[in-house]
Design a protein that fits this description.
The radius of gyration is 20 Å and the shape is globular. It is α+β, with helices and mostly antiparallel strands. The chain contains ten helices and 18 strands. The strands form three sheets. Strands 10, 11, 12, 13, 14, 15, 16, 17 and 18 form a nine-stranded antiparallel sheet that branches. It has a five-stranded parallel sheet with strand order 3-2-1-4-5, with helices on both faces. The protein starts with 5 loop residues before the first strand and ends with a strand. It has three domains: 85 residues, Rossmann fold (3-Layer(aba) Sandwich), CATH 3.40.50.20; 61 residues, Dna Ligase, domain 1; 164 residues, ATP-grasp fold, B domain (D-amino Acid Aminotransferase, Chain A, domain 1). Strand 12 and strand 13 form a beta hairpin.
Length: 351
């Protein structure tokens, strides 16, 4: 295929920026669609169209000038995408996006494949929360079905006082309740599948979150080879069932009883940033190669690595470490809880 094709990316954040760099290194043109005129991806894109994600006319005009359309985040109006899908191929598919946009749909889908998740319940009213809390007699985690990320749209409910605190006199968005489980650790795996069904999976990493925001991803983990292989098998099952094209992130809770999928992300993923320096290929290279029908590369890890997110105003001495690879995203506003960059601390494998 010719490498001077144009890739359209919906979204202009750091993921789009790193995708654009990977694509440009392969000779592709990158057009970005984003409402934010100060978006990080605008710094590296061939062309930027500024517009809202529900502006169908603007989106249609954008799509006319690209050969393949992809996206960097899930919260896009799928109705608008369905119109675009008539004129340009969207990878990953709208089907994968629809499933991941709604937590109830997502967990129901995973269970239909025989994949374990935490126990969950549909919540449509405050009364539903009260009834469930009284029945289970243990804490539950309420999550909005849509639009939540980095811990947003989530609240832990232990008793009636919590219900009154968070929901009394307020409207409740369609939500789910999850039973709170104790787990040993959090893992994630980055997997990529191409149009022919070829699959490559990166080694699972161990994640640490704080207030719902990813702090670190570490490789290698002390997780057994059996469980790491099981994580790969589960991720392969998902992408094969979807006929998926591109990179997907799959997050797991690890308990003595095995693996529970927390969520899937039909895109490149924060917990995969370690691949930029710890593997023979990065998740960004692999996503571009998959959606543009280029052969997938090796996902073997060549170094031990800890990925540190740089969040909000927090600074880190790691940026001056000679073993560190530093990535600053170029966001205009520094806000608490906002991912401003990341650092990959690299060491010799096995050290």
């Amino acid at each position: 295929m010719r490498l001077n094709k144009t890739i359209g990316i919906l979204g202009g954040g750091q993921l789009a920026k790193m995708l654009a760099i990977a694509a440009a290194n392969l000779g592709f043109n990158i057009n970005i669609y984003c409402p934010d005129r100060d978006c990080p991806a605008a710094q590296v894109a061939s062309k930027v169209i500024f517009g809202n994600y529900d502006d169908s006319d603007n989106l249609v005009a954008f799509a006319k000038n690209v050969d393949i359309l992809t996206y960097e985040f899930e919260n896009i109006d799928t109705k608008a995408l369905e119109e675009l899908d008539q004129q340009v191929e969207i990878r990953p598919s709208i089907k994968a996006l629809k499933i991941s946009q709604d937590r109830y749909t997502e967990k129901s889908y995973l269970n239909s494949l025989g994949i374990k998740t935490t126990q969950f319940y549909k919540i449509d009213s405050v009364a539903d929360i009260e009834k469930l809390l009284n029945r289970l007699k243990k804490p539950i985690l309420i999550k909005t079905r849509r639009l939540g990320y980095d811990g947003k749209g989530q609240v832990l409910i232990k008793n009636q006082d919590d219900i009154n605190k968070y929901f009394l006199g307020k409207s409740l968005a369609p939500s789910i309740a999850e039973e709170v489980i104790s787990f040993d650790r959090e893992l994630s795996i980055i997997i990529v599948r191409d149009k022919k069904g070829n699959i490559k999976a990166f080694e699972p990493g161990e994640n640490v979150h704080e207030h719902g925001i990813l702090l670190t991803t570490t490789l290698p983990t002390s997780t057994s080879e059996v469980l790491k292989n099981n994580a790969t098998i589960i991720a392969k099952k998902i992408v094969n069932d979807l006929g998926y094209i591109g990179v997907m992130g799959v997050e797991f809770f690890l308990k003595e009883q095995g693996l529970y999928v927390n969520e899937i992300a039909p895109r490149v993923h924060n917990s995969g940033h370690w691949t930029m320096d710890g593997s023979y290929s990065s998740q960004f290279q692999q996503h571009i190669r998959a959606i543009m029908d280029l052969p997938l590369l090796s996902t073997e890890r060549h170094s031990d690595v800890i990925m540190y997110n740089l969040i909000g105003t927090v600074t880190s001495n790691l940026v001056n470490n000679e073993l560190a690879k530093v990535y600053i995203y170029g966001k205009k506003d520094v806000l608490p809880g906002r991912k401003m960059g990341h650092v990959n601390l690299i060491k010799k494998k096995g050290s």
